[in-house]
Here is the input.
Amino acid sequence: MSNRKDPNPNRRALSDGMWTVMERVLSQFGQLAIFVTAARVLTPAEFGIFALTSACAILLLRFAEVGWAQYIMSWSGTDEIPRQVLFVAIVFGACAALLGLLVGLGFSLFETTPDAGILIMLFAIWVLLATTSSAQKGILIWQNKLRASAICEIAGEITGLAVALSALISGYGVLALVFGRIAMQSVHLGLSFAFTRLSPKRGMSADQLRDLKDYSIPLFSSRMTVNFRLYAATFIIGGFLGTAAVGYYRAAERLVSALTEVVAVPSQVLAWSLFRQARENHNGTLAGFQKQAEVYFHVLFLTALPIFVWASVFAKDLINGLLGPEWQPAIPIVIILALARAISLPTFASEPILSLAGEIRRLPKVSVIFLILTIVLNLIASPFGMVAVAWAQVIGSVIVTVIMLWLTRVYGAVVWRDVVIYSRRIIPPLILSTVVLILLRDLNVFAELPGLLRITAASIPTVLLYAAALCVFDPNLRSAATSYVKRKTGSAPKP
Here is the structure.
């Protein structure tokens, strides 16, 4: 069995978490570089066409992924079942890719824009690679190889960045963005197999297949409805307001999503690892979930909330500095979507908590409600423009978060009142740093600086102030920081 005991699991979790955060930061930096270059090369309408096609491809990928990776991550046993699940994932990925190829071929034969058909067929290839990569990532996490998983992602992202930028500069247009994705997944896949040293295996028994289906279908239903909910605005805006509006909205959404993923992906990976350890440390019960939740969400809030505040304060500078003045209609969308993402922070660990609690079946029905709610809100808002659609996301986030808090309270043994009390100390540092950030942004000495330079000049002292204020108001964080400094300086014995 691959889940080995570690003499200091907390330190290893922190180290692996830092690797995962670094991977996400590098990933988002690379994707942001591609996005900025594409926005400078493509028109909003062209960017909107890519966004619509990409949304369809991602939904197809979610169909192929089902819940294979999650089943692997929650598995307790030998490596035979993860290998068999990997084989199932490859089969589903191939079927989804074949469907995409047929659709792309149809577009090439019957549409006046053959590039759309080529774009779809390239995305179909990406779906096969990404489905297999997803299962492989699940195996790496199951093996407690979070650092190896991060290395695979980093290498893939660097390759994808190089390929996409080269193709954009060479004039391949929207096709360049898919070239980069295919290159990224190919490198990730090759390295992940080298780290896992496990090959796919046929021959899963009927009973095991039934168990895989019973576990994965509820998770699949939940994730699909979540993804339909996430991309509903894209499709509805495209239908009501046209591809240029989709381009503006997706540009703003992409900037906010880049910041969200920096915290969301590492936090979800850590949630699977940490809450699973809490369950194992308490003989398969949920007795350790509350204590784990208090620490986990405290760290999540103190790291993520300042990021969304920062995005709101510097929305204008980000859009003008990165994309150019022609993308200014996206500025208010950035501010509103940042608020929506901040509201949804408590939901980041809902899936791991409910899955490890054996209550994953609760998600599908709730997710359908979320989907219907989102579509209704977007349909009501879309005739009033992009800003109204963005505010609909805020309303939806409030409702979704309240329901997910209730689910994790009832079925995941997480008392949110205690989580909030534990995290209340971050409020003064957050308010203080926000005020200082706004004051620095509006200082005359910074007013004449280019937008991105002004962001940097105002952000660095604010980050230092925020860190210092956290240490003042949070005794636990102050103690941890002091212990870390003493270990590094050799003034205290290592535990």
Remarks:
- Confidence is low (pLDDT under 50) at residues 1-5.
